[in-house]
Every structure is written in structure tokens, then in C-alpha cells.
Amino acid sequence: MINKEEIMRRFEEAGAIQKGHFKLTSGVHSDAYLCSELGKRFKGTNIDVIVGPAIGAIIMAHVMAMVLGPWVRAIFTERENGKMTLRRSFEIKKGEKVLVVEDITTTGSSAREVIDIVKSRQAEVVGVGALIDRSGGKVDFGVRYEKLVTIKMNTYEPNNCPLCKKGIPITKPGSREL
Predict the structure, then answer these.
(1) Which long-range contacts (CB under 8 A, 24 or more apart) does 155-161 make?
(2) Within the chain, where are the H helices?
């Protein structure tokens, strides 16, 4: 099992966390800074909108939009009656160039739901960005996919889960219903 120190080391190697002496927007000083490396990887790409699923990708979309330019809008999707949707008067217009972002991908299903929304609006998905790909690099969205860290985590289909068979209680840290 990967521990917190290993994750932080990998984020530092990827340039997502910088060490030094920083003055933050709030005015306070810090010895570490969570930088916008993922946004930098998409610099020079024509992007109109950045969209990610709530809750994990809301702040990510906002930070990446700030990195990529004042003309880039940041919006998010959310579930309504179990279905991913655009709400809160967010819109994606026909022909817009859209970057889909996600904090963590395992199977890529949430990002794919967002991609489906983008395509249903006749907009173009120019890429997908994630902080962590925990599929071990197996996820393929059919478009450019940038991630800061790739790790392999064991995953099991519910009907073939050795942890369930051992009677280990299950917890649900994500945003979907069990």
C-alpha cells in the first residue's frame, strides 16, 4: 500500500508541489506550494472551457483556468438523480474546445460521463487531465490524457472482491452511491 510520504514524493517529482519560501495570496508565508503543473501541460492548447465532475475537480478546474488564461471558463458537472449533468446555468456551446479534468481516475467512468456531456453539446474534447491516475496507466479516453502521477492500485469487481469475501467492512470515500 502506498503511504502519504510516497504520494508527496511523487507529487514533488512531478512538479505538483514545490518546496521553498512562498508568499501566498492570503499574505501568509509557506515552505510548500501546490503549483499548477497540470495546467502548464496544456498551455498552448486552444481551450475555451474546463469542466470536471463535482466535488473533486471543482477547484482543479478553477486553478487550471487561471493558469491557461482569463478567457478560459471553469465549470463543473454534478449528479442529479444519479445522472451526471450540467446545472447552475453552466453551458457548453457548440464548437467550443473543452478540457475535462478529474482529481483521481481509476476506471475513468466519471470523466467519461463528462466527456459524453461535452459531446452531446457538439463541443470538442481536447484532452483530459488528472492529478492521479490510479489505473496504472490503463485508462484511455481516446484523447490526449495528462496526469501528474500514475500508480497501480488493486481494484476488484464487487462480485469477485477478496476483501468482501473476508468480511472486511467497506467504506465509501467517493462521490457515487454504493
Answers:
(1) 155/106, 155/107
(2) 4-14, 37-41, 58-68, 109-120, 162-165
- In which domain, by residue range, is 1 found? 1-35
Do 64 and 106 lie in one domain? The reply is: yes
- Closest Cα partner for 151 from 32, 4, 5, 7? 7
Which residues share a beta bridge with 160?
none
Same domain membership, residue 127 and residue 72: yes
Residue 29 sits in the same domain as residue 101: no
Residue 18 cell numbers, joined: 514545490
pLDDT digits (tens, 9 = 90+) for 118-165: 999 999 999 999 988 888 899 999 999 999 888 887 778 888 888 889
Q: Is the pTM of this model over 0.90?
A: no
**Number of DSSP helices (H) and strands (E) in the chain, helices first:** 5, 8
pLDDT digits (tens, 9 = 90+) for 9-25: 777 777 777 777 766 65
Tens of pLDDT, residue by residue over 46-70, are 999 999 998 888 888 988 898 888 8
- Are residues 9 and 58 both part of a single domain? no
68 occurs within a structural domain: yes
